[in-house]
Amino acid sequence: MTTSPAPDVASDPAWRPTVDDVAALIRARTKDPSGRELGTFTSETRPSDDQVEKLITNGCAKVASFVGWELPDDAWPEAGHLASLVAACEAELSYYPEQVQTGRSAYAELWAMYQYDVGQFADYVAQIAPTSPVAARSGSIATPSGTVVFAYEMGYGVWPLGDVVGNVGH
């Protein structure tokens, strides 16, 4: 299996989100020391813009672990959105853990969105980039689960696959 090397700081992926993208997900965390909501992260917010940049790097790595670093242009907006979701979740966990634990944070909803979307995104990338590493992992033929169960129980030939699999090593 071939893999794409992780980009260094000078070659961040073209789909890397901005601090504004993360701020759009957790706007309430963009307050300055006087309590004014700024709508983005700055050196005066908690977390700061520099801290969110590090979380964005983590988010990009998490997305790339599913689909690779090099993506077709059509996939960039969703890749950036998924990386933003991870960064927002990490901001919630890192800077407001007491609120996460007591359900006073958007963490659970943000993480649920990420989990719901990332698998579908990997399928999308496999379809639009059939030579990508994610396509090689997922295969090119969609097989409904009912077909797999039928094939296992009934087999495609003379012998049911369950008998073949069950007798391996005996």
Secondary-structure-based class equals mainly alpha
Overall 3D form: elongated
Helix content: 55-70%
Give the low-confidence spans: 139-152, 156-170
Taking all Cα atoms into account, the compactness measure Rg is: 21 Å
- N- to C-terminal distance: 32 Å
Oligomer: single chain
Sheet with most strands: none
Number of domains: 2
How do the helices and strands follow one another from N- to C-terminus? HHHHHHHH
The total of beta strands comes to 0
Averaged pLDDT: 82
Tally the helices: what do you get?
8
List the helices and strands and how they pair.
Blueprint: H1 19-25, H2 49-67, H3 76-95, H4 97-101, H5 107-128, H6 133-138, H7 145-154, H8 161-166
What can you tell me about this protein's structure?
This protein has 170 residues and is mostly helical. The chain folds into 2 domains: 9-139, no CATH class; 143-170, no CATH class. It has 8 helices and no strands. The protein is elongated.
Short description:
The protein is an all-alpha fold. Helix content is 56%, strand content 0%.
Key terms for this structure?
single chain, 170 residues, mainly alpha, 2 domains, 56% helix, 0% strand, elongated, disordered C terminus
